[in-house]
Amino acid sequence: RDTELSRRQRVMSDSGGDGQVSLSRVLGELKAAKAEIVKLQRELAKFAKQHKQGQDAIRCLVTQRASEIETAVGPPTPAAGVDQSGQMTMTPIGRLASCFVRLNGTPRNGGVCPHARATLTLTCPDSIAAVDGLAEFSHVWLVFGFHQNKKVGSAKPKVAPPKLGGARVGVFSTRAPYRPNAVGLSLARLDKLDGATLNLSGLDIVDGTPVYDLKPYIPSFDAPNESAVVQYPQWLRSVQAPEKLLRVVVTPEAKDAVHALAHHLVAFSSADEALMCLTEMLASDPRSVYRKTKCEGADYPLTVDALHVNCTFDDDAGIVTVYKVQLLAVTDYAQAPININHLGSIKGPT
């Protein structure tokens, strides 16, 4: 019995000794791990500091390089929009290819010349997406620039509309081109939408005109309410009166010339269509007040599509006579020659 007791005491004593050794070893390992963690934390803090310093150095280099580029090439062109001061920068969304190659003869109202033809191919970004749904409208508003004004800053506070016979009214009472901002607004019929190209008719805009915006014509938005009283000056009431239209006479020689040159036409599909447009142009008397009063009876030259036309006006009889038609490219005209190929393909609707 004594022997067994002694054996058990020795076992317990040995076990207690090993437990003390194991605990000391664990505490030592924990202390070493803690020191390692502290070391790693210091190294991470050092790395983070170095990383931030690297980022700051990169930002400085980028800013410096951007400044050097701006100094070399100038500041970037501002995007279209209105700044805080109200200033606006606009970029054309396309240029019109019109049957009216020069200003002479171009009607002042597209409604009097429904056979006029033009195309507008959009060049703005994502133009196909931008015209999605436009084909469902029959008419569009064109916001354009009067790019053929004689000089920049040629605004006039008062102008003389042809229908007033020389009398002057404020420019904001008219559609005259010489405005503080040379921007025009015109309504045209949308005959067809082909991708980003609009086929238009019944308009009054000259070839090459920059277009800045398109808006669909919506009768309920753009026309006054039926109950509204629409008021406008007396001198405008005869603008489209049939009895005020001139009688257009095309001599047999001139008519034959149009038919002979029909294969040169790019805006019209036939000589008869070109003659119809020419008749509409002249019937509404496109002459300026100066032409009417100072050049009575003189030859009046104009262009339509690829044709150079000569005519005379008899104001007493209310007749305009077309007596000569030539190909535009071979005419001796006061202005510089025009490349008629710029018109592109602007055939009427099929």
Describe the structure.
31% of the residues lie in helices and 21% in strands. The chain is α+β, with helices and mostly antiparallel strands and 350 residues long.
Task: Give keywords.
single chain, 350 residues, alpha+beta, six-stranded antiparallel β-barrel, four-stranded mixed beta sheet, 21% strand, elongated
Q: What is shown here, in short?
A:
The protein contains six helices and 14 strands. It has 350 residues and is of the alpha+beta class.
Instruction: Encode the helix/strand succession as letters.
Output: HEEEEHEEEEEEHEHHHEEE
Number of helices: 6
Taking the alpha carbons of the first and last residues, their distance comes to 126 Å
Q: Which sequence of strands runs across the widest sheet?
A: 3-4-9-8-5-10
Mean pLDDT, nearest integer? 82
Biggest sheet overview: 6 strands, antiparallel, barrel
Sequence stretches where pLDDT stays below 50 over 5 or more residues: 331-345
How many DSSP E strands? Answer: 14
Content-based structural category: alpha+beta
Residue share in β-strands: 15-25%
